[in-house]
Every structure is written in structure tokens, then in C-alpha cells.
Write a structure and sequence with these properties.
alpha+beta; Immunoglobulin-like; 4 domains; 19 helices; 26 strands
Length: 706
């Protein structure tokens, strides 16, 4: 676009009367003049002149990189022998939004400083400077402008400062500073088609907003959003979407201007070698044809993908315990009116959708204040896991008949297992979302990665649509209650079915205890067992002495005692597991003879030695990760495959929070696990699908390494 614009402008200039007079040059849109900082200069020295623009309101001219359209100022000098002009010193630009096209430039008043070098051989008493200036000035339309500017400066034995000193002082203040206030590193991420700048500050002074202007066209896409996120109180990242021209021939680094709310700084940084080495060629095999078509559609495609991904979560083992309760509720109340069925369906759906949005909102809020977290972060928090253990354990005991009347220990949640009222349906939806959100089933990983890196409104919309997908089967049954007739008829068998579902919830408790054990070791598991003991005792006391047939005094004592046991046990569990979590220094991975702990340094060293590397990004609380281990990753067939090809297998365990793993997940556009990556010594990177088989692994390894 800029090339065509340049041709048009140069052609159009011939249609205008060219201004040949001495400075200043005046048009209807701007006044331009050439000024010198000094009235008298010395030979053998360098002084500075400036091309000064005073623009009419709302008109603007362009920076050296104009952005998505426009042309920069061009100066062609006519100078006597022994005199030379340096490059333009460009002030820090600002952004202009022209109908969705982002351009870079200046408005109101701007001064372009140019250094002039006078050789010792220059013998004249007067130095005449002439320059042909060309510019493009735009408002609602763009007009080319040009003019010949000139000035004469005396040459003598001493320097004489002119009357433009204040102008030059202001001009220098508008230049980007050469000294960055932070340590800045950069890496090139061809997997996500981004350059990533990492800022580290020793004193913790980080900007709240940051934008990067590349000093050349075709490097950073000016129309794409630059995402600035905090990592910690002393570190942050700026993700820069790369231009398609840059992707064809990546450079070794970035040069340009970093601009925050407090100033601008010149940036010249080289991409890290490790990042370049591991992103030379990326082959993503995780996208199905449908998935890729939806991704290519933009926001509507993202929303469709999120809905389908949420729908698939209904068959994932993560939410099975909660969904089993919902199925039981449907069977038990299959004879309810259409209005009642719709009310329960809407309440359940609202619980799911609002919980997804709330979790996403918490994620965005925590990232905004510097927390470095990803989707599923709640299960990395031992306090949250303890609370979930207590809730599931109480539900299980309720279904098994230990107590029959729902308590109010957790608001309306305890009613879910006992009565299908509207508030209970909402609470059931909340639980389904909380437990199901970390599940990275098919289609979920790619769209959740996009959502986390998008702006907040788009991210919340995508996660809300994912929640709607999870809720949709039960919403459909509530809208068309006759469909429930296809389920088994209610009967005596339902009591046995209810008790069986209690064991499913106990299985979920065992699984969550395993998560706590991986996070905090044996001490954390002991704390969980104490919590379960006290919670079980509380449920027994409530069921034994708070029944309707008991006296009011007995019921009050039972309620107070059971409530105290539950809250006291939960408090003990939270405090103890946190202490165990803080002190636990166990290995991040259970090494079984072949799999070793992941680190970026390990990947770099193995690739440098010419060995292929396979990485399993996983977490104990990720059930699909555990299924993939059993059916594919840890099978004899796959073990032999990796051995035959000399593949080094590494496990990146995200059960506990790990900043390095979070960073690596984001580098591949993911917000959670699982992620499976195969690095070839050639530099090619293959991203495998989230659901693995021995055949998928064999095909990926053979294609990448043969």
C-alpha cells in the first residue's frame, strides 16, 4: 500500500505548484521551516539544524515507519563541499486510528533534528544549507507536500547560539531516551507468530501500559493488538504480533521505540539463540480440518470452537461426578412441569456460564496485577483443592445416606445432592464449571490459548461460550422435557444408583488427595486425611442427631458441633497443606527410568548434542493427561519407539505452579495442559494433538525424524 501511495504522491506533486522560496514554506495544512541552533559555527565541528512543522488542527504527518499506510518525511540536501548531513533524529511517535488502520506519526508541532558536519577544509565565511523536503499530510484525506527550505549560517572562530535554543530543547526532550529503565530481552516465537519482549526491573517499577514501534515496516503488524501482561511485581511481557513479511525472512532482533505512559526509549535487542533454534520450523498437527477452518474465521470461529469444546467436556472424566448428580436429578424429577424443568435448566446453565466467566475474570485480574498463571490455575492452589475435597466428600456421604438433610455449610451447594430446586441447580452448575474448567479436551486448548491472550472482553466472551457448550445438553433437556422420557424410568433402583454415585464422588476425593500429595508431599496427604476424618464425623453427628424426629436442643447441638468440625477441619487442612506446599521440595517428575524433568536448559543441551526431544506438559489434576500416559505415552510400544529413534523424553509437571512451564505454554499459544511437543535436531517443532494414541505418536515421530 505504501509503495502505491508513494508513486501516487510523487505523480501528484507535478500537478501542484512547487514552492521554491526560502523558508518558511506555508500551505493550508502546515507551516514548515528550516532552523539552526547556532547563528555561527566552527569548522571541524558538528552542529544541529531542524525541520520544524506547525500543523493545522487534526492534520498529521508520519514517522519513519508510518504503520499500515502513509509516507515518512524525506529530506534531500544540497550542501557545499566539505559539509554533510546526518540522519533524521526522529521524535517518539504517536498512534492514529484511521478506520481500523493504525498509523504512526505526529500532530500539532513537531521538530526533526538533523546533525550537520562541517569539515576543517571548509573555507567560506558563510554556510548555505538547502534541502528539498517531501511529506505526506493527512486528516480525512491525504495530501502530498514539498518545498525547498534554506538557511544561511555564519562560519567563524567561536560559536554563537541563535534564538531557537528553546525549540531545540523541546525537540530533544521528545526524542526516545537511549537508556532503558528495565532489562529487556527478546525471543522469536514462530509457533504463535509473535516476538516476545520480557521486561525485568530490579526496583519493581514497571509500566502499566507499553507499546512497541518497530522502526521499519514489515516487522510488527501495526493493526494487531500488542498484549502487555504482568508476570510478577518485577517482570512483565509484551507480545508483538509479527508481520507476514517478517515471517518470510526473520531478522536477528528488533529495533524501534518502546513507549509507556511515562516516556519513550530506544530499543535495540537481539533474539535469544535458544528461542530461534527451537522455532525454526513449526508443524502443528493438533488442528482438525474443522478446527482449523473455525480458527481461520476469527471471533465467530473462536466462539463456535469454544462452544464445541465445552460440549465435549460433558464426556470428559473431569466432570463425571457432578454430571452424575445432574442425571440423577433429572430422573428423580422427570414428572415435573415444563416450567419447572425450564427453570432448573436455566439455573444450571447460568451457574455454569457465570462460573466460567468468573474464573476467566479472576484469571485476567490476577494476570493484570502481575500473577503469572494459566487456565486451570485454581487446582494449583492447595487451599482450593482442600475446599473441593470437603465439598465432594460431603456430597458423597449425603448420597450414601450418612445424613439426609442438606446442610448450609456451603450455601446452596449441599442441596444439590438432595433436592432439585432452582438454587440447587445453579450450585450444581457452579460445581460442574469449577471441576470441568481445567479439562483441556479436544478443541479446548487452542481456543483457550487465544482467549487468554485476547483483550478482556473477547476473552470473557470466549470462556462464557465454552460454559454454554458445557451446559447445553441439560439446557436442551429442560427446553424439551419429553426427551427425559428416553432415560430409564424412576423406581426403587434409584436408591442403589444414588449410593453408587456416592462412590464416584469418593473416587473424586481420592483423585484430589493425589493432587494434594503431588503438590505438598506426605504431610499434605496426612492433613487431607485429618480433614476427611473430621468431616466424616461431622456428617455422622448431623445425620444421627439432627434428624427431624430429634429434639430441638439435640438438633441445635448437632448442627453447632458438626459445623464446628467441618470449618475447623477445613481451616486445619488449609493451613497444614499450605505449610506442606511451601516446604515441599520433591521432584517435579517421578522418574521411571526414561522420563526426566524438563527445563529449557535441558532442551537446549540435548538439541545441541543432536538428539530429538519429546516433552509432555502435564499435571496430576489433568485427567486427560493421565489417560494419555496410560494409553499412549507410557506403553511398551511408545517406549520402544522413542528408544529406537533416540528420543530424549522430558516431563514438564504443572501440578504446582511453575513460571517457566507457564511461559513455555504461552509460547505455544496455550493456557493449560496437556501439550505435547517434539523437537527435531534440525530445529523443526511438531505439536501433537491433545488426545494421543500409539499410532499418532508413531506417525509424528517418523514424519519428524525420518
Amino acid at each position: 500500500m505504501n509503495l502505491l501511495l508513494r508513486i501516487f504522491c510523487y505523480s501528484a506533486i507535478g500537478l501542484f505548484v512547487q514552492v521554491l522560496s526560502a523558508s518558511p514554506v506555508k500551505t493550508e495544512q502546515a507551516t514548515v521551516k528550516l532552523v539552526s541552533e547556532l547563528d555561527q559555527v566552527l569548522v571541524g565541528e558538528t552542529f544541529e539544524v531542524a525541520v520544524h512543522f506547525e500543523l493545522e488542527s487534526h492534520w498529521h504527518i508520519y514517522w519513519q515507519n508510518p504503520g499500515s499506510s502513509g509516507l515518512p518525511l524525506e529530506l534531500t540536501w544540497q550542501l557545499p563541499d566539505g559539509v554533510s548531513a546526518g540522519a533524521i533524529r526522529w521524535p517518539a511517535p504517536q498512534r492514529f486510528d484511521l478506520g481500523g488502520y493504525i498509523t504512526y506519526g505526529y500532530e500539532d508541532v513537531v521538530t526533526f533534528i538533523v546533525p550537520i558536519d562541517v569539515a576543517e577544509s571548509f573555507a567560506a565565511d558563510t554556510l548555505r544549507l538547502e534541502v528539498d523536503a517531501f511529506w505526506l499530510i493527512c486528516k480525512e484525506l491525504c495530501l502530498p507536500g514539498d518545498g525547498k527550505l534554506s538557511i544561511e549560517v555564519a562560519v567563524g572562530d567561536e560559536v554563537e547560539i541563535g534564538g531557537s535554543a528553546v525549540m531545540f530543547e523541546h525537540a530533544r526532550a521528545s526524542l526516545p531516551s537511549a537508556q532503558l529503565p528495565w532489562n529487556v530481552s527478546a525471543r522469536l516465537d514462530l509457533a504463535t507468530k509473535e516476538a516476545v519482549l520480557t521486561l525485568n526491573s530490579e526496583n519493581g517499577a514497571l509500566p502499566t501500559e507499553l507499546y512497541f514501534y518497530a522502526d521499519a515496516e514489515g516487522v510488527i503488524d501495526p493493526n494487531a493488538t500488542q498484549l502487555f501482561t504482568g508476570i510478577s511485581k518485577q517482570s512483565a511481557k509484551l507480545r508483538l504480533p509479527l508481520d507476514s513479511l517478517f515471517l518470510e525472512a526473520p531478522a536477528k532482533g528488533l529495533t524501534g521505540v518502546l513507549q509507556s505512559e511515562s516516556g519513550s526509549w530506544q530499543l535495540d535487542v537481539v533474539f535469544s539463540d535458544q528461542a530461534r533454534a527451537t522455532t525454526t520450523k513449526v508443524v502443528a498437527v493438533q488442528s482438525t480440518g474443522l478446527e482449523q477452518r473455525l480458527l481461520d474465521m476469527g471471533l465467530l470461529g473462536y466462539l463456535a470452537l469454544a462452544f464445541l469444546g465445552g460440549l465435549i467436556l460433558n464426556v470428559m472424566p473431569c466432570v463425571l461426578p457432578v454430571l452424575s448428580l445432574k442425571v440423577f436429578s433429572l430422573l428423580k424429577h422427570s414428572g415435573q412441569s415444563k416450567q419447572q424443568a425450564l427453570a432448573h435448566g436455566l439455573a444450571y446453565s447460568a451457574g455454569v456460564v457465570l462460573s466460567f466467566i468468573a474464573l476467566a475474570g479472576a484469571l485476567f485480574a490476577l494476570r493484570a496485577v502481575g500473577e503469572r498463571i494459566g487456565w486451570g490455575f485454581q487446582l494449583q492452589n492447595p487451599n482450593f483443592v482442600v475446599a473441593l475435597v470437603v465439598v465432594f466428600f460431603l456430597f458423597g456421604l449425603n448420597l450414601m445416606g450418612v445424613f439426609e438433610i442438606g446442610t448450609r455449610l456451603v450455601g446452596a451447594d449441599a442441596k444439590v445432592a438432595q433436592r432439585s430446586d432452582v438454587l440447587g441447580s445453579f450450585g450444581m452448575g457452579v460445581l460442574a464449571a469449577v471441576v470441568g474448567a481445567p479439562c483441556m479436551g479436544p478443541l479446548v486448548a487452542s481456543v483457550s490459548g487465544i482467549a487468554v491472550q485476547a483483550n478482556i472482553a473477547t476473552g470473557l466472551l470466549i470462556f462464557g461460550m465454552m460454559g454454554l457448550g458445557l451446559a447445553s445438553p441439560f439446557l436442551l433437556l429442560s427446553i424439551f422435557p419429553k426427551l427425559v422420557a428416553y432415560l430409564p424410568k424412576p423406581g426403587v433402583w434409584m436408591e442403589s444408583f444414588k449410593q453408587f454415585m456416592g462412590f464416584l464422588l469418593m473416587a473424586a476425593v481420592v483423585f484430589l488427595a493425589l493432587v494434594v500429595g503431588r503438590q505438598g508431599g506426605v504431610d499434605a496427604v496426612f492433613a487431607i486425611l485429618v480433614v476427611l476424618l473430621l468431616t466424616g464425623m461431622a456428617a455422622w453427628i448431623y445425620g444421627r442427631w439432627a434428624a427431624p424426629v430429634k429434639s430441638k436442643r439435640a438438633k441445635v447441638i448437632a448442627i453447632l458441633l458438626s459445623t464446628s468440625l467441618v470449618f475447623g477441619g477445613s481451616f486445619y487442612g488449609i493451613q497444614s497443606t499450605k505449610a506442606a506446599y511451601d516446604s515441599f521440595r520433591g521432584d517435579a517428575v517421578s522418574v521411571d527410568g526414561q522420563w526426566q524433568a524438563w527445563s529449557t536448559e535441558r532442551v537446549k543441551s540435548e538439541l545441541a548434542a543432536g538428539k530429538p526431544v519429546f516433552i509432555d506438559f502435564t499435571a496430576t489434576w489433568c485427567l486427560i493427561c493421565q489417560v494419555n500416559k496410560k494409553v499412549a505415552l507410557r506403553t511398551d510400544e511408545t517406549t520402544a519407539l522413542f528408544k529406537d529413534y533416540g528420543v530424549v523424553t522430558l516431563e514438564a509437571d504443572w501440578t504446582r505452579y511453575d513460571e517457566a512451564i507457564t511461559d513455555e505454554l504461552e509460547r505455544f499459544g496455550r493456557s493449560g495442559v496437556p501439550l505435547y511437543v517434539l523437537y527435531a535436531p534440525s530445529g523443526a517443532v511438531t505439536v501433537l494433538p491433545q488426545s494421543l494414541t500409539n499410532g499418532i505418536l508413531r506417525e509424528a515421530v517418523e514424519n519428524a525424524l525420518n
